[in-house]
């Protein structure tokens, strides 16, 4: 992410980078506060997964099944993100389109798609963000540095992924506003 901050995004995009602690209660407080503070067009979460060997685009976040203890040895009693919330929430971003567009750029990084972010803090954060932003959120799992990609490769891949996501979001918003005009 430091690499992404260095690279930046298009000139018309305000990029805010935050580190989110691996703590359920902090996530429940921080994610809504960030949505409120910035009213972002899109929030993209990035998590390192020791099991990942590709850059993985997560399609959805899940509400229930959180049994793992966080860094504070805490686990939500309800084992869910939002009591009474939907079972899962899909991102409004078409991850298949992002995958094919970014793969076509030949950045030397392979991408895959997943529907299960793992029922731990990554999934918990993603669902919380999808819930707050009505689906205008994305989650990207990346492998640990050097396994196999360098920080620079991951930074460039994230830059390309986020720019494609923003473009897709803008296209879909244009379509929605056209439909309202007629």
TrEMBL record:
Domain of life, source organism: Eukaryota
Main location: cytoplasm
PROSITE patterns linked to this entry: PYRASE_GLU (PS01333)
Subcellular location: Cytoplasm
Record-annotated active site: 58
Catalytic activity: Release of an N-terminal pyroglutamyl group from a polypeptide, the second amino acid generally not being Pro
MF annotations from Gene Ontology: pyroglutamyl-peptidase activity
Keyword rRNA-binding among UniProt keywords: no
Pfam families in the cross-refs: Peptidase_C15
Record EC number: 3.4.19.3
Family: Belongs to the peptidase C15 family.
Subunit structure as annotated in this protein's UniProt entry: Monomer.
Functional note: Removes 5-oxoproline from various penultimate amino acid residues except L-proline.
PANTHER family: PROTEASE FAMILY C15 PYROGLUTAMYL-PEPTIDASE I-RELATED (PTHR23402), PYROGLUTAMYL-PEPTIDASE 1 (PTHR23402:SF16)
Name of the protein in its database record: Pyroglutamyl-peptidase I
Native source species: Alaudala cheleensis
